[in-house]
Design goal:
Strand order of the largest sheet: 4-1-5-6-13-12-11-8-9
Number of domains: 1
Shape: globular
Largest sheet: 9 strands, mixed
Strand content: 15-25%
Radius of gyration: 17 Å
Number of strands: 13
Order of helices and strands: EEEHEHEHEHEHEHEEEEEH
Number of helices: 7
Structural class: alpha/beta
Helix content: 25-40%
Distance between the termini: 10 Å
């Protein structure tokens, strides 16, 4: 039997009428094609997803990126309409789920919003627009001069900056190098790391890009970039997903 990975859903309003939960297909394909596990989407809402039942069912959890930002109230900041949308239901489930996964040793992999959620779950804070901090680059996805998102996904998801990994750290050992190059599609980012959050990768401008949770009994890593985009062909992203897959298999057996 294949391991099962729970992939968190995100709230979406279709045609301004229908509320749905959705997951980007690349997340599902990354799990199915690289980890060798069965991706199983669960609702990102505490009143439809029972945490104990979920963790008794899956062998690991993938926290995906999303359009919505983590609500600022979770790290002591006043909300601002400029930083909407928010997904309060996902916040309510994910932040508790992260602590439960780490406590139980359930393999946990956070990407983009999931990476940010991991930091907030352990008491860290976020900045709504990393590019507004002195000396930082624009980490948001490329746009045309008209302001529209670039239509070519190979441009949007192209590797855009280096990340320096902590020598001897979990990521450096996993990837066999101290510097990697990654894509960049985010506005919000880590401001202050949480108490158990160990920073293991930093971009050229000082933006935190890779973390692990200290003293976690199982796989508990997060990345700011979209590793799900191309792990079938990108050796860096493939190695991380394969390591996640090994942790899933170990948990299953």
């Amino acid at each position: 039997m294949k391991p099962v990975v729970g992939v968190i859903g995100n709230a979406l309003l279709v045609e301004n009428r229908y509320t749905v939960q959705h997951v980007g297909e690349r997340n599902l394909r990354a799990v199915a094609e690289v980890t060798g596990a069965l991706p199983l989407m669960f609702g990102g809402c505490p009143n439809m997803t029972d945490l104990d039942t979920l963790l008794d069912t899956v062998d690991g959890v993938l926290l995906t990126g999303a359009r919505a930002n983590v609500h600022p109230s979770h790290f002591g900041t006043e909300p601002d309409a400029r930083h909407e949308p928010f997904d309060n239901a996902r916040d309510a489930l994910a932040l508790v789920l992260i602590e439960a996964c780490v406590a139980r040793g359930v393999p946990l992999f956070g990407i983009c919003r999931g990476f940010q959620e991991m930091n907030v779950a352990f008491g860290g804070s976020l900045h709504p627009e990393i590019r507004d901090l002195p000396g930082r680059m624009n980490h948001r996805m490329p746009r045309l001069e008209t302001g529209e998102i670039h239509p070519d996904p190979t441009v949007v998801f192209a590797d855009r900056h280096d990340v320096r990994l902590t020598p001897g750290g979990a990521f450096a050992q996993l990837l066999g190098r101290d510097t990697i190059r990654v894509n960049s599609l985010h506005g919000q980012g880590i401001l202050e790391p949480g108490k158990r959050v160990v920073v293991e990768g930093i971009a050229e401008d000082g933006t935190i890009e890779a973390i692990r949770i200290a003293d976690a009994p199982g796989f508990a890593l997060g990345v700011q970039w979209h590793a799900e985009y191309d792990p079938q062909s990108n050796p860096v992203n493939r190695a991380i997903f394969q390591a996640f897959g090994a942790a899933l298999a170990a948990r299953r057996h």
